[in-house]
Design a protein that fits this description.
- It is built from five helices and five strands.
- The protein is about 40% helix and about 15% strand.
- β3, α4 and β4 form a beta-alpha-beta unit.
- The chain is an alpha/beta fold.
- It is globular and about 45 Å long.
- The protein has a single domain, classed as Rossmann fold.
- The structure holds 1,3,4-trihydroxy-5-OXO-cyclohexanecarboxylic acid.
- 1,3,4-trihydroxy-5-OXO-cyclohexanecarboxylic acid binds next to loops.
Amino acid sequence: MQFKILAIHGPNLNMLGIREPDIYGSLSLDQINQQLLAEAENLGIVLDTFQSNHEGELVDCIQQSFGKVQGILINPAAYTHTSVALRDAISAVGIPTVEVHLSNIHKREAFRHHSYIAPIAIGQICGFGKDSYLLGLRALVTHLQAQERMEYSK
Ligand code: DQA
């Protein structure tokens, strides 16, 4: 099966490149998405991308992906630390999800150490800049392939 994956970017990530480049790097979101799309092609999967600054829009996007995508790669940005709604949406659709962050949230302010998403994600990758996204995409595809092999061998 050719996997379809949705990469979701949360609030303020549309400001990448301008926003605190010492923390988040100098690449724009568009450039990160281009790199993700190139990696998706290498991996033989289909990738869609979505960004919103609005919690409800992110919830709608996750709900609408039900039955349409096999995996979600998400940088929930500030909503990581606040949003029960995003976590519930991911749990509701039951789509395997990998959480990524450009910065190492565990090395930063205490309020960034807690993630509402991590306990319901397959895993979390943070601290590698834009490579967090690329590593996260590879990890998600590897997970989906392993899951598929398990299903076939049943
Ligand atoms: C972030 C880390 C969050 O704490 C922050 O609110 C962001 C970006 C990251 O990618 O490092 O907006 O998710």
